[in-house]
Amino acid sequence: MRMNTKLNEYIEKLASTHQLSLDAYEYVITHRDEEAAEWLARKARDISQSIYGKSIYVRGLIEFTNICKNDCFYCGIRKDASCSRYRLDQEDILECCAEGYDLGFRTFVLQGGEDAYFNDARLCDIVSKIHTLYPDCAITLSVGERNKESYQRLFDAGASRYLLRHETADRNHYHKLHPSSMSFSHRMRCIQDLRDIGYDVGIGMMVQSPYQTAHHLAEDLKFVETFHPEMCGIGPYITAKDTPFHDQPSGSVELTLYLISILRLIYPPMLIPATTALGTLDPVGREKGVLAGANVVMPNLSPVGVRRKYQLYDNKICVGDESAQCRHCLENRMDRIGYTVVTDRGDIKLWD
Ligand code: SF4
């Protein structure tokens, strides 16, 4: 490496110890250059391949409701947004799973807003039906904040993974992104509850969301380093119309890729998706994500008729493609960069 000596020192320390001080993380972010990014990406790829080979895990994403009681300032389906609303019923969801199973998916991700219609009874019923019909599949939920008893019931019904992006590990920044009715402490409590129950937990953050600084991102990295989530979703912030942030610029693909590589070094076995947000801002963003160290992609299994309505941000890709097209498109994309999409539950491989 021929980069800035201090940067070089920090990056090598990260590669060997998987940890840095908060100040060092901030330095690595603010002083990044092309050479450092390339070195980190190469290292991250090597680490990922040493654990997962050239296999890419897929998750079948079913966006089953865009109704939400919350008003997060960045979100295109927030309560006050004027988008047209929908909810899939149990039959629709099971049809998505049947189609997904035939296409080779062994993980279903049920994602939705915080929609009170899906109380514990309704959601547990759906989860347990999927679990009974497809015992070889993992069920992931991504339905926001609930109480611990609710998380426990859903776990007992057969869900074993839960995605709850923390969005930012900085309390003050959190309150700049959310209305006063939402609580940073509660979100973090939920994440801990999920871990305590035994879920594989996915956290995540946006890159360059409004008001975000390098210090905030360093706090996110520190949180990953101490919590060791099974998954971390990271994508560039993308502006959504009809939100208080409608005139804020979207985040950077380059910084997102850099952070993916750092995340791989912090916790080598962590499942890291190459997100749809990356593919939205860059036509080969997901490929670049994998080459930076990601090892998961999440094609859409939602019925095409509702996909346009689940616009968390503007110009989201893949809203017009059938599930089979999405899957094959991603298979081809991964194939072109030398990776293979596999039919597998895609569990984290433990590491020490
Ligand atoms: S980010 Fe999630 S919780 Fe917030 S408004 Fe959007 S769907 Fe609801």
TrEMBL record:
Binding site for S-adenosyl-L-methionine: E167, R187
SMART domains: Elp3
InterPro entries: Aldolase_TIM, Elp3/MiaA/NifB-like_rSAM, FeFe-hyd_HydE_rSAM, HydE/PylB-like, rSAM, rSAM_sf
Positions annotated to bind (3R)-3-methyl-D-ornithine: S142
The keyword Repeat is annotated on this UniProt entry: no
Binding site for [4Fe-4S] cluster: C68, C72, C75
Protein name listed in UniProt: [FeFe] hydrogenase H-cluster radical SAM maturase HydE
Native species: Absicoccus porci
Lineage: Bacteria, Bacillati, Bacillota, Erysipelotrichia, Erysipelotrichales
Gene: hydE
